[in-house]
Specification:
This protein has about 100 residues and is an alpha+beta fold. The protein has four helices and four strands; from the N terminus they run ααβαβββα. It has one domain. The two termini are about 30 Å apart.
């Protein structure tokens, strides 16, 4: 439904989550995730290097958050994870996020 039609009918249009948005705004996604997760975490040097190499990123910033999410724009990567100590399942989720964005 178009926004003007929704306004005429008095219906509030629904907005898709950024993961399903067909026209994402690259800057908005990164800033939204950074605002939600403002606590910076430090990963082990090896894990951070592996992520940068796999994502072809020169800089990685890791934030604390409730859910695992990943964005990479212009050689700068942003990773949101629950804690620095990740379980095997959480590490798999991190790699899935990285590979899904690259494909």
């Amino acid at each position: 439904m178009h926004a003007t039609q929704a306004q005429l009918l008095g219906v509030m249009p629904l907005k898709l989550k950024s993961a399903f948005d067909p026209n994402p705004q690259p800057g908005a996604l990164v800033s939204q995730q950074v605002e939600q997760a403002d606590v910076v975490l430090t990963l082990s040097a090896r894990f951070q290097q592996d992520i940068c190499t796999a994502a072809n990123a020169s800089e990685l910033t890791v934030f604390a958050g409730d859910t695992i999410s990943w964005t990479c724009h212009a050689q700068q990567a942003h990773l949101v994870i629950p804690d620095t100590q990740l379980s095997a399942e959480q590490k798999r989720a991190v790699w899935q996020q990285i590979w899904s964005e690259q494909s």
